[in-house]
């Protein structure tokens, strides 16, 4: 399967040309230091490829959701970490655009790297402002988008700038899109999809798509209680999304006419309160009594789900099975993570909490693909077009 867009590998980059690269450096910080550099590492293949070809690089990215030029959302810690990884100096600009930024870009030697400041410091970024797009484009000769995690946003640095420069997909973005499209369009079967999290409304489009494409959907997390309510079962004090009940009911009805099996937990782990120190009990069933809330799937569910996972040709997982951040309620998510890690098939994780769980359990290296973009991954799998991909030049 191919992306259908020009790849950075196909670019005819001349020594000394400047390339504007949109990267995803939206990384966690603590006391001014990057605590997880996986997204920075993900951009290294594209960055190193362009540097080896003699290009000078102008990198742009966002960090957090600043309302103004908030110093704690500066990209300086990310550029410092990048410099350590590539063993070369990275110049940190103090703005996104402007005369000083343009002068810094023009001063770059072949192989040099300039990091612009947080694109969301500019009010025109999220509005895909044409003037900001033009100013960004004026800094370079070529544009490369390697920020899959931001590709579902039609922003100036992800979509607008591509209208003004020859453009291509970076290696990370290309790999993400091809891998995720293959899940729906050309999966090795059986295709088993694991969906957790709190809200059915967040996953309803995904459930609908996979009821047409998958062989089995395994439901976990608090969203299962919307399904139980749709079936008329008591849910006690469990978190129930009211909007999700009708959505769950429609999904159950569609599943009856589908070749895809929609499976719900068969046992639960309950707590009195949403607290790690709360009273805990296992429920051999799914009818939650008053005064209790479901906080994890039970051991029989893990066993049943693991049996589906281990015989799958392709596994896609998005969303934890319960409140895994609290050790007494982590066993369900851990059991599913271990089953996914041991699966002989292709295993793809849709970012977010699932990725965090794999990391916490030390299993992140045991899966085929760990997506860097939770929201972008879900929208792509739902069948939506990603503006940051569609804006790029066709192959």
**Overall spatial form:** elongated
> Order of strands side by side in the largest beta sheet?
5-6-4-1-7-8
- Elements, N to C (H/E): EEEHEHEHEHEEHEHEHHEEEEHEHEHEHH
Mean pLDDT: 96
As a whole number of angstroms, the C-alpha radius of gyration is: 23 Å
Uncertain spans, ≥5 residues at pLDDT below 50? Answer: none
State the secondary-structure class.
Answer: alpha/beta
The CATH topology of the largest domain, please? Rossmann fold
Strand content: 15-25%
Structure characterization notes:
The chain is of the alpha/beta class and 395 residues long. The chain has two domains: 8-172, Rossmann fold (3-Layer(aba) Sandwich); 179-381, Rossmann fold, CATH 3.40.50. The protein has 13 helices and 17 strands. It has helices at 38-52, 76-86, 99-106, 130-137, 171-185, 200-213, 224-230, 242-256, 299-310, 331-342, 352-360, 374-381, 387-390, and strands at residues 18-22, 29-30, 33-34, 56-60, 90-92, 113-115, 142-145, 167-169, 191-195, 216-219, 261-263, 268-271, 280-283, 293-297, 314-318, 346-349, 369-370. The strands form four sheets. Strands 5-6-4-1-7-8 form a six-stranded parallel β-sheet, sandwiched between helices. A six-stranded parallel β-sheet has the order 11-10-9-15-16-17, with helices on both faces. A three-stranded antiparallel β-sheet has the order 13-12-14. Helix 6 (200-213) runs parallel beside helix 8 (242-256), helix 7 packs across helix 8 (242-256) and helix 9 runs parallel beside helix 10. The longest helix is centred in the N-terminal third of the chain and has 15 residues, at 38-52.
């Amino acid at each position: 399967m191919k992306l259908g867009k020009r790849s950075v590998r196909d670019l005819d980059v001349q020594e000394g040309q400047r390339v504007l690269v949109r990267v995803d450096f939206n990384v966690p910080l603590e006391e001014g230091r990057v605590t997880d550099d996986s997204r920075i590492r993900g951009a290294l293949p594209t960055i190193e490829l362009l540097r080896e070809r003699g290009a000078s690089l102008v990198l742009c990215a966002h960090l957090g959701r600043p309302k103004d030029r908030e110093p704690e959302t500066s990209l300086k810690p990310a550029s410092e970490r990048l410099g350590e990884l590539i063993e070369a100096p990275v110049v940190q600009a103090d703005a996104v655009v402007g005369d000083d930024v343009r002068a810094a870009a023009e001063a770059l030697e072949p192989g040099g790297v300039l990091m612009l400041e947080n694109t969301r410091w500019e009010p025109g970024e999220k509005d895909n402002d044409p003037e900001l797009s033009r100013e960004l484009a004026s800094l370079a000769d070529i544009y490369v988008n390697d920020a899959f995690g931001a590709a579902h946003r039609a922003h100036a640095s992800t979509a607008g700038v591509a209208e003004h420069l020859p453009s291509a997909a970076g290696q990370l973005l290309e790999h993400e899109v091809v891998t995720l499209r293959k899940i729906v369009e050309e999966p090795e079967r059986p295709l088993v999809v694991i969906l957790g999290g709190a809200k059915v409304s967040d996953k309803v489009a995904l459930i609908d798509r996979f009821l047409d494409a998958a062989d089995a959907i395994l439901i976990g997390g608090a969203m299962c209680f919307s399904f139980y309510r749709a079936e008329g079962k008591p849910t006690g004090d469990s978190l129930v999304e009211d909007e999700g009940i009708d959505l769950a009911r429609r999904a159950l009805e569609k599943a009856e006419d589908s070749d895809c099996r929609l499976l719900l937990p068969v046992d639960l782990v309950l707590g009195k309160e949403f607290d790690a120190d709360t009273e805990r009990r296992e429920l051999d069933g799914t009818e939650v009594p008053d005064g209790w809330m479901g906080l994890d799937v039970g051991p029989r569910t893990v066993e049943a789900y693991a049996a589906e996972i281990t015989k799958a040709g392709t596994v896609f997982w998005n969303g934890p099975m319960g409140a895994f951040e609290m050790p007494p309620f982590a066993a369900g998510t851990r059991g599913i993570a271990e089953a996914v890690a041991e699966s002989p098939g292709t295993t793809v994780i849709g970012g977010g909490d699932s990725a965090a769980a794999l990391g916490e359990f030390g299993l992140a290296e045991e899966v085929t693909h760990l997506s860097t973009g939770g929201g972008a991954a879900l929208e792509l799998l739902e069948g939506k077009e990603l503006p940051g991909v569609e804006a790029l030049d066709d192959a």
